[in-house]
Amino acid sequence: MDQRTLVERAQQGDHEAFAALAADAIARLDAAARLILRDPDLARDAVQETCIRAWRDLPWLRDPDKFDAWLHRLTVNSCLDVLRRRKRRPVEVELSPVIVASVEDASSLIAQRDSLDRALRALEPEWRAIVVLHYYLGMPLPEVADALGIRLGTAKSRLHRSLSVLRSVMVLAEAPAAVQVPEGQYA
Predict the structure, then answer these.
(1) Using 50, 70 and 90 to split pLDDT, how confident is the model at 172?
(2) CATH code for position 9
(3) pTM above 0.85, yes or no
(4) Pick from 46, 61, 135, 148: most CB atoms within 10 A?
(5) What is the largest CA-CA distance in the chain?
(6) How many angstroms from the chain centroid is the CA of residue 165?
(7) Residue 49's closest CA among 14, 20, 80?
(8) Given this model, what pLDDT does residue 176 score?
(9) CA distance linking residue 23 with residue 133, whole number of Å
(10) How far apart are CA 148 and CA 94, in angstroms?
(11) What's the number of domains the chain is made of?
(12) For residues 94 and 34, is the Cβ–Cβ distance under 8 A?
C-alpha cells in the first residue's frame, strides 16, 4: 500500500495505517533527533512527542503527499521544544560508526569525530536542524525549507551561515595552539 493511501486511512482514524507510517519513519526521525539534540534519551523523548503530535494533528494535514516533510517539521519542533525545556545543552554524545575505506589510525578518527561534534555543538539548534536534514538525511533544500516552515531563501542563507560557522570552528580546532613565551625569554 502506498504512503498516500496510508496517510488518508490514518487521517480517518485507522490505527494500523498510522502504525505502518510511524514504523516506516521512526528510524529516520530518531537519527535526525539524535543529531539535533546530541543526546539519545532526549532524542527518544522528542520522537515520542512527534508521534503523539502527528496522531493528534494528522486529520488536519491538507496534502497527504507532504506527510514526510510535515513529520520532519514536527520532529524539529519537538527537538527545539525539548531544548527549551531543558535550558541547557547536553554533554553526552553518541556518534554512529563511520566506515572508512582507507587505513587510518584510530586516534585521528577520534580527533576528527571530536572536532566535528564540537563544530555541530557551536551551531544554534535551528541551524543544526538544517545541516542535519540536508546533509545527514539527504533531503533536498526545498524539502528542508518546507519541513521547517521557512522560505527557501531563508533555508539557503541559514545553511550557508551554518557551514561558515562549521568551517571556522573546524579550522580553529586544527590550528596548532599558540605557545606562550614569557616576556624577556627566547622561544
Answers:
(1) confident
(2) 1.10.1740.10
(3) no
(4) 46
(5) 80
(6) 16
(7) 80
(8) 56
(9) 19
(10) 25
(11) 1
(12) yes
